[in-house]
Design brief:
Layout lengths: L9 H8 L4 H13 L2 H14 L4 H22 L7 H17 L11 H18 L8 H16 L28 H12 L3 H14 L23 H15 L4
Length: 252
C-alpha cells in the first residue's frame, strides 16, 4: 500500500499550538488525555488482581487514579499546593501499568501495547502538570502527544517508542524546527518494516480528528473480553531486543 502520511505534521501542529497560551494548551491536553481515564482505571482494576497485588496497595492505586486528572489540573493552575508525595503516588499508578505491560504475565495480551502507550502519555501529562517542562516546550510535547493519544484510541499494536531505533545517528524526535518531523520518519520506517502501514493509517486518521479539536473527546471504554485476548507479543519482543542491543554496545 501507499506509505501513510499525516494530514498535519508534528511541526505544523506545534506551530499552531504555539499561538495559544500555555494554559490553553494544557486545557486541550487535559481534556484529551482525561478521556482515556476509564482505560487507565480499568487496567489498574484488572491487572492488580491478575498480579495478585496486596489489597491495600490495589485500593491505593484505585483511589489515586480516581482523582489523578483533577489533581493534575489543580496543580497546573496552582489551585492547591503541590505535594511531591501525592505526585509520587500518581507516578506509581502510572508505573504499575507501564511496567506490567512488558512483563511475562501481560506482554502477550492484545491490550498490552495499548496500555504501554497510555503509560507514556500519562507520565508526560504528569510532568507538564507539575511544571517539569518549561512552557515553551509544551507545543513540541503536545504535538507528539496528539499522535500518542491517537495510538491509544486506535489500538495501535506497538509501543511507538520501540521505533526510535529506526532513526539514523544524529536524528532526534525532540529537536527544534524541522527536526520534530523525525517523529514521522520514525513511525513510517518502523511500520513499513513490520508491515503495520494500515495501523499507522488509522493512527494518522484519528490524529486528524484530535487537532484541531472538532468535538469533545469520547471516553475510551472497552468490552470485558478484551482484557483476556492474546496477541503476538511483538511489541514486548521489540522492546527487549532493543534493550539487549543497547546494553551489548561497548562503553567508551
Amino acid at each position: 500500500m501507499t506509505q501513510p502520511t499525516p494530514k498535519q505534521r508534528c511541526t505544523e501542529i506545534r506551530d499552531q499550538l504555539s499561538t495559544h497560551t500555555p494554559n490553553d494548551q494544557w486545557v486541550y491536553l487535559h481534556e484529551q488525555a482525561s478521556a482515556l481515564h476509564p482505560l487507565w482505571m480499568r487496567a489498574i482494576e484488572e491487572w492488580t488482581v491478575t498480579d495478585e497485588l496486596a489489597e491495600d496497595k490495589r485500593q491505593k492505586h484505585i483511589d489515586v487514579v480516581g482523582t489523578a486528572f483533577d489533581r493534575m489540573d489543580d496543580w497546573r493552575f496552582e489551585r492547591v499546593k503541590y505535594v511531591k508525595a501525592r505526585r509520587n503516588e500518581i507516578d506509581s499508578a502510572i508505573s504499575f501499568i507501564w511496567t506490567r505491560s512488558i512483563q511475562k504475565t501481560f506482554r502477550t495480551l492484545l491490550i498490552a501495547p495499548v496500555i504501554r502507550n497510555l503509560g507514556g502519555l500519562l507520565r508526560s501529562c504528569l510532568y507538564i502538570a507539575t511544571r517539569g517542562y518549561h512552557d515553551d516546550q509544551m507545543p513540541t510535547l503536545i504535538a507528539q502527544q496528539i499522535f500518542d493519544i491517537a495510538a491509544v484510541r486506535t489500538f495501535f499494536p506497538v509501543d511507538t517508542s520501540n521505533f526510535v531505533g529506526f532513526l539514523s545517528d544524529g536524528e532526534s524526535i525532540h529537536g527544534h524546527g524541522g527536526d520534530l518531523d523525525n517523529f514521522h520518519v520514525m513511525l513510517e520506517r518502523g511500520t513499513i518494516s513490520y508491515n503495520l502501514e494500515n495501523a499507522l493509517e488509522s493512527l494518522y486518521s484519528e490524529a486528524a480528528t484530535l487537532w484541531p479539536r472538532q468535538s469533545a473527546p469520547t471516553p475510551v471504554t472497552l468490552d470485558d473480553d478484551i482484557w483476556k485476548q492474546t496477541g503476538d507479543g511483538m511489541s514486548a519482543r521489540m522492546y527487549y531486543e532493543a534493550f539487549g542491543v543497547f546494553h551489548s554496545r561497548p562503553r567508551s
